[in-house]
Amino acid sequence: MNDLISGVCPVLSVPFTESGEVDYESFESLVKWIISLDAKSVLFFGVASENIKLTDPERYKLLEILLETRKGSDLKVIASVADHSSELAVKRARDYEAMGADLINILPPSFFNPSAEQIRFHLAQILAAVKIPVVIQHLPQGGASADVADLLTLADEFTNLKIVKCESNPPVESIKRVAEITNGKVQTLIGWGGIFWDSGDAAGAKGIQPGCGVSDLYKWTEAALVSGDRAEFVRRLNTFIPWITSWIDNLELLIAVEKHILFRRGIIKSDYCRHPTMAITEKAKAEIEECLELIKKVEAGNG
């Protein structure tokens, strides 16, 4: 089976102005930068996109810009549907498909702890509504289904269920179970900043979906993996993944740090995060400086 999505698939940030308005120009610059790194796919909208803090008109305009900007490249766009309402989720999925998204990502509902049957109904409604391939996010720490097997009962009924994004910590057992239960028909991706990339890849996952602030470091690391040099892959990963592991303990901190890095690199014009947000800690500030130094070394070929 050809891998539908593989390697590094960044989750795009949404830049804002200092007054908290969406900065569409900076967003276009961000997309162009991601394309310049030879990324083959992106996820939009994710937690790292501050999706929950966006209005619907903002979401649709941002997606239009992304789809327009990627023309002429081979970048695949995975558009995320995170509505708690099944009816609204179906409408959004159909809209995104009509706009030209290549895949739909579903974040299962978790508000008020819906039952496994309610989650299955929600997923089935969306899977039946679109023809393009679908990714289902398995994020048990977010309050959705704790057992990945609950999501896979849909794989035989809906052939467009192609990928499960495994974000349990660690995800290795979930990755193995997806392969076993579906006999390899459903592939897996690693979420949660790619902090389990090494073990997840060894378990059979096809790629990772981290934030986008250091996408070039992830691509640099991927190059060693693709070349077959496992030791170099692990070495490169360990130069920066401890920082990601530290930042991701608080998702608002991770979002703020990633945006600050993008701002410092001149990719976006402001590191503003919509509230509620979190101030960057002194520890994280020091780690950011180390990270920026590493980026310079990698760019100079001395990583």
What does it look like?
α2 (56-69) links the parallel β2 and β3 (76-81). The protein is 47% helix and 11% strand. It has a single domain (7-299), classed as TIM Barrel, CATH 3.20.20. The model has no long low-confidence stretch (mean pLDDT 96). The chain contains eleven helices and eight strands. Strands 1-8-7-6-5-4-3-2 form an eight-stranded parallel β-sheet. The protein is globular. The protein has 303 residues and is an alpha/beta fold.
Large-scale geometry: globular
Q: So, CATH architecture?
A: Alpha-Beta Barrel
**Rg value:** 18 Å
User: What summary fits the major beta sheet?
Assistant: 8 strands, parallel
- Amino-to-carboxy terminus distance: 34 Å
Number of strands: 8
Structural class: alpha/beta
Spatial ordering of strands, largest sheet: 1-8-7-6-5-4-3-2
**Total individual domains:** 1
CATH class: Alpha Beta
What fraction, in percent, of the residue positions are helical? 40-55%
Q: What would CATH call the homologous superfamily?
A: Aldolase class I
Contiguous low-pLDDT stretches (5 residues minimum) are none
The helix/strand series, from N terminus to C terminus, equals: EHEHEHEHEHEHEHEHHHH
